[in-house]
Design goal:
Length: 648
Amino acid sequence: MTTYVTTPIYYVNAMPHLGHAYTTIVTDAYSRFKRLCGDDVRFQTGTDEHGEKIAEAAAKAGETPRQYVDRIAATFKETWPLLSIRQDYTIRTTDPDHIQTVQDILQVVHDRGDIYFSEYSGLYCQGCERFLTEKELVDGKCPDHLVEPKAISEQNYFFRMSKYQDWLIDHIQTHPEFITPERYRNEVLSFLSEPLEDLCISRPTSRLTWGIPLPFDNKFVTYVWFDALINYLTGIGYPDGADFAMYWAAAEHVIAKDILKPHAIYWPTMIRALGLEPFQRLHVHGYWNVDATKMSKSLGNVVRPKELVDTYGVDTVRYFLLREMSFGLDSSFSADAILARHNADLANDLGNLFSRSLTMIDKYADGRIPECCAGFLFTPEDQELMSAMASMVAQYREYMENFRFHKALQAIWEVISLLNRYIVGNAPWELAKDARHGDRLKMVLYHLAEALWMIALVLKPIMPGTAEKMASALGLQKQFADAGIDAVGQWGEVPSGTVIDKGAQLFPRVEKKAGVPAAPSAGQPLVPGKPEANIGEGLITFDQFKDVELRVAEIVAAEKVAKSEKLLKLTVKAPEKRTIVAGIALHYTPEALIGQKVIIVANLKPAKLMGILSHGMVLAAKEQQADGSERLVLATVAAPIASGSRVA
Ligand code: MSP
């Protein structure tokens, strides 16, 4: 089987940021997953370097467009290895072969009668680099760029997109996987329920010269989107290249929702006009916000991939982005959230399991993977582990195949929890005390080693460095390069006697940096069912604890905070009356709170939230739900007690 998967080609008018990193990591993880499944994979990314936006950015930087695009395209290319991204090809729309392909395609479409010359008046948004319809405007402005589009009237060339409307609707309806998740498919179908206009595909050179000249009229350059989309063909050598013959039929594109229309409407109709079969699947994800706010240069909250990698390590960044976002929906990035995932999921759950297991193999089996004891009866615990692994890998394949990365990771982490329970249930340290249990001890340790090997394999697409480190520590680095997904669930294959390296630490904990503000609701979740995993690191002294003044407080009034989804304004008695703003509106109605006795931090410096001064903080427990959401439950007292009582 072959796989051809692409990212959008990024505009070079901005430096790489979290959003670019996410799409490219997703595409990389998918391509690595397909390789693990034995596919012949081609993964392409690149940069979009023509058009008004770029010409303007170059002028602003005081450079020629050529100097400018060379400089920024290089920054993108240099960013990818930092994120462990291994693309097969990096295309630039200023590459000579791309320019030639665009011109050849324009000529073909023109010769077939699908390009014509006409006068056009429309509302043009420069940010989008396209004409917007009246319907797309919100309060007369482009909803993405918040500016009024310019009324422009000029003569231009047009692509007969409308001719392919019925075909496109039919194609989308008969191919449910063509645009996913479904919400975006519905969005496109709803857009297509109105008549489609033809697409203006040229810009007069009087207005713009930084573009590919039309082959049949050099007074015009090609509209940047018509130029850009063709990258997906140029990169594999359309029309005669061997790679084109090999990969086009498998094409899949990954994008965010901002560029749905060009990919779901312009692109398939362009391909159709060329007489080609359309791509197979378009995967559309949501937007990353930062601390629940839109990421923007003017707000100064743009997250740069390099800084993230320097702080948390590349695999934590990859894991976090894939685990935290439900593909298709928006997500919010925060320093607290990535830190919590690093310390809880990676350092505690996976890291501790791994180092505990290796330490036990070192101690109880002389640092070698013990014999697998073929012929012994499996206990119910062994069987549970085996069936959990089998169902995990089946789910993992299904989820990875369908871009539900957070679900795939949840499935892996369920097995990680089970393995932690397997260790506690089998208590190898007890087995080691009695020589009669020697064979059982070997079997438990063998199962641990092979389960960790399997986990390394499924993590390979997500955290390639960590997975390799795990395989090396298990002494299985040679097998690692060639092993495929089918090795997961094949028990008894790991060679006994393999020398392990117990020294490997996968994820050193990252402590919160001074000066990084904590979001009011964020805290590090503890690890359920694993008390020992939560003890020992990040300990505080009793004196430090004493500094926090916890009190029982009775809620006497509660109301919603205007313009906020999450905040409630509470009046509490502790015993004096005070106002506390709490982020619990999604979990409690104001009425349900009256009369409740909760626990507050009484000596917190007052802070202003949505203009209201909050004197303290209400404590609540946070539970992660299977669907990725969170449930909050207020901490209260078990029996009636006077308001203001100290909690210690
Ligand atoms: N050049 C066009 C794409 C042409 S593809 C033939 C373009 N470039 S872009 O630089 O603006 O990149 C847009 C893409 O960057 C999004 O579709 C998404 O992949 C990624 N992201 C940019 N900001 C993002 C977020 N805040 N969140 C998630 N991804 C976003 O459009």
